# Entry
Amino acid sequence: MSFSIVVARYNEDVQWTKQFKNVIIYNKGKNLDNVYNQIPLNNVGREGHTYYKYICDNYEKLPEYTFFLQGYPFDHSGNIICDLTSHINLIKNKSLEIGCKAGRIAIRDQKGRWGSCSSNGNLAFSWRLIMAPSFVLDYVVAHEVAHLVEHNHSRAFWNVVRSLTNHTDRGRIWLKHKGLQLHRYGK
# Structure
């Protein structure tokens, strides 16, 4: 699996990125001394605008997956990319089960939802899911992947979700009762 990592940084420690070859730092803070394998990304406004310009300028050259991260939530864990790649495989496998292919996959600082599926098949997930039990992640991935074939919350949609995971009820209950605790992180 080929991937690159784009990190928005404002003075956070990004030393963990040294272990990866394809890292691009969007640096809003002090200069990065002694950080290797870094490519500066020009600031064109907010992170989203900067990322969008980078995607547009490099779309044909982007690897199979590009992780767009903000420095703060991720700088504490050098293994986050290994975790993310295993989650990408979960998404790919569930998509194959229903005969679909997800578009771009983004990990974001979403405050109001755990995941989303755009009309063109792009999936986005809250970074806070890395702190949830694995059955919760399995449910949220199944939920968003199901939107690739059912763009609603109809009975047919829930049948697809249930075909992709055995954790639908358990995942929903956990998020209802404990999800708010995860939203306290990163604020």
